[in-house]
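Q: Hi! First time doing this. I have a protein sequence and I read that you can turn it into a structure. Is that right? Here it is:
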Amino acid sequence: MNEPFKTCPFCSKDWPSRETFLSDDQLVLVGYQVDFEEVALGLFLFNHTVCNTTLAIRAGLFKDMYFGPVFKERRTGQEDCPGYCLKKSQLAACPAQCECAWVRRLLQVIRQWPKPTVATRSAMR
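A: Yes, that's right. Below is the predicted 3D structure, encoded as structure tokens:
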């Protein structure tokens, strides 16, 4: 049997795949905790509204969903840096050509991931 993509540590709900996880309307992306040493090890933070638990998932598990530029230089603290990575609940895309920018843009992909409507959920049952 395959391991689920993620299991809620509080209520034990399993999400068998990344797609089912992202499509769950009971999960809300609420933050990003940066790792300046290894950007892919930063954490995307999701609230599971059923049990009020926050789930953390490494940014690198979503990297293949990003198709834009990846910059080599970190711009944190420079004039062109808005400081978004320093604010955990700030989910905006970053305009800087920074090594962290791909994560900020990936946050937008995740935020816009389609969630099923009530009618769709009823039809799936």
